[in-house]
Amino acid sequence: MLKKVASLEKRYFTIGMAGHIDHGKTTLTKALTNVDTDRLKEEKERQISIELGFAPLYEDDEIQISVIDVPGHERFIRQMIAGVAGIDLVVLVVAADEGVMPQTKEHLDILKFLGVKNGIVAITKIDRVDEDWMELVKEDIAKELTGTVFEDAPFVLVDSLSKKGIEKLKQLIIRTLKDQDMRDVKGAFRLPIDQVFTVKGQGTVVRGTVYEGTVEEGQTLTILPKGLDVKARQIQVHHQPAQMAFAGQRAAINLSGVSKEELERGDVLVSSEHFIVTKMIDVVIRVVDKLQHPIKQRMPVKLHIGTAEVMGRIVFFDRNEVIDEKGEILCQLRLDEEIVTKRGDRFILRRPTPVETLGGGWVIDPRGKKYRFGNQTIEELEKKKVGAPKERITSALLEAKSLSVSDLIKRTALDEETLVAHLKMDKDFLLYNEREYTLWEVVYSIKEDLFDRLQDYHQKYPMKTGMNKAELLQSMQKHYPISLLEFVINNGISNQELNRKEQYVSIASFTPHIPQNWSKRTNQLLEELKNDGLKVRPFKDYLTAAGIPERMEHDLRHFLEEQKLIIMQEDPFAYHEEIFSQAIAILKSRTGPEFEVGDAKEILQLSRKYMIPFLEKLDAIGLTKRMENKRIWR
């Protein structure tokens, strides 16, 4: 997270309304924003929120705040988790006439496990109770919130219908967020999708909260874990067109290249393939205070992470069941479907049947492996959890491939002195271009990928000098930063592992050559070209006569020219290099410093039809200079 800094950079936040059903979350949201977030017909009829509702709360030059009204009914808990997973502050809504209810407690558990740290308690429907009752309710709420993230949260008394306390609550939200840390807008863009729909004439639209990074209109993006490439045609923030969307904002993005049927809630829209797609994650969890049933080894569980909801099994390495546990448990989740996640991501675990919230935690390592049961595995997981400086730096660089010191500080949460000390003393880390760090492991991986691509290219195009560097960079830039690719290529050239000729890159051991099955026919072509001397036919005629397909003309002609076996005249003619050189030598030996066309015709015994193109070639390559009817040797 980035600290608030004294700058003109605008910051974006999303807050959530949480609490028990019918405690007035939607009505409070409407009082704050003038937007009714119950938009579905069945929501209107049943007077409960089923889907997530969104509304703009406040905006000035410094800050923009959006509101999510999350469902409170137990049956809609998964939508609640999807909404809360991306918020920066929670307003816990408790009705004055009912106090803390079962759903309130479950929401509190979920907020705790998701790591939400900032909260405000809004006591609603205050016009329904007298002053004495209100004091009892406040005491009861304070008692229930002891030990939760809301233990020290301020209380605001409101009535959404009469608007009592609404402005006070709004100003408190604004003041709190203006002093709050902001999300990372400079990292790779990530938006977990919570809604997919179509707009007539526009196509597929996805909506979600931008977890990190920024997205621009026209940008090429990827849908993970499906690996679908799409483009952001249009972006909207609160129904208004926007050129960009930033971390902390609610955004709707119109995508091209994909249909609504191909997408679903839980997919993640990203700007980089550096995000990890996985089915096995090492985690640290805490369980709720009162489990209704034990959590058994390899028991089916439902994972809620971001907006994804995935079935899997929980695997313990130091126990076979959990009945009552106050501390952290190091374990693993083996999932039925792939998810997109990174170290530090928060999640909720629920039992599929009978349904209950089991607990939650955070991802230690998204690249989990199968481990043995026992203390040795627990010790290894503990090391991962603590995250020694080297492990944190390595993990960040494996994910992003290349980072500056300032970016590493953000990703590793290390102080600059500790970070720089490890970067300098550890030989696994490499500083390149004087600004960015990478891992030698990443360099070797890129080099292997690079060589594989060049090897394939050489096999496919054996007559070409090499692969165009721009084309090579473009084919790899989705996977690695351009600056790092440039470094690896230049390093390979310096080490004589790669060759570069003009804009072409090749493996050092590669030599352009004619494929063996065409070498005999190429020799036949050259022989015929030589026999015709300077009285050549179009180059295609020689190809046809030798039985060489027309599709090979460009590469073969370029190769023969590069190898100085032919001299291209004005297209479509070419000379055999030996004949061309001999003709120049004869002409030069039998003329003085200058000569005319007639002199050349007589010496080389050529008609004007063949003589003029030959002389023009001499002019073109700088051997002669035409001066009126004469040519002067240079």
UniProtKB/TrEMBL annotation:
UniProt domain Tr-type G: residue ranges: 10-181
Keyword terms: Cytoplasm, Elongation factor, GTP-binding, Nucleotide-binding, Protein biosynthesis
Main location: cytoplasm
Entries under InterPro entries matching the protein: Beta-barrel_SelB, EF-Tu_GTPase, EFTu-like_2, Elong_fac_SelB-wing-hlx_typ-2, P-loop_NTPase, SelB_WHD4, Small_GTP-bd, T_Tr_GTP-bd_dom
GO terms classed as biological process: selenocysteine incorporation
Pfam families assigned to the protein according to its UniProt record, in alphabetical order: Beta-barrel_SelB, GTP_EFTU, GTP_EFTU_D2, WHD_2nd_SelB, WHD_3rd_SelB
Record keyword Hydrolase present: no
GO cellular component, as recorded: cytoplasm
NCBIfam families per the UniProt record, alphabetical: selB (TIGR00475), small_GTP (TIGR00231)
Name of the molecule in the record: Selenocysteine-specific elongation factor
Organism the protein comes from: Neobacillus thermocopriae
